[in-house]
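USER:
Before I trust my own judgement here, I would like a peer's view. Write it directly below this note and I will take it from there.

ASSISTANT:
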Amino acid sequence: MLLAEITYFTPFVMRPLLAAFSQLDTGQLEAASSLGARAPRIIRQVILPESLPALAAGGSLVLVLCLNEFGIVLFTGAKGVTTLPMLVYSKAILESDYPGACVVAVVNILISVGLYGLYRMVSRRAGA
């Protein structure tokens, strides 16, 4: 379950980081290496300070997405509503029914992929 969450949320952190790395001035890296700085020091004093805002943005985005999965349902007080991620969580963690949780997770994946395919088909036909 944890590996699936990491796999799902990794792109939301990596995209801002890749954008920050693409804007990094290579002159700073060359100057630091020509002054004798080794790779760990260059990472710690040049790359990390430049990438911290992007890392914070990616982390905030992941936090919002995680809260969206569980928080909205719990926050709005919808006691009788069960979403698919909440059903997977309750089956796996609360009931220890791992085969049932896997079935619900596969259904969730199939619905997500199907909706994405439908979106792509409609956007292609609309010429977007």
Summary: The chain has a mean pLDDT of 84. Helices lie at 2-22, 26-34, 39-75, 84-94, 98-126. DSSP finds five helices and no strands in the chain. The radius of gyration is 21 Å.
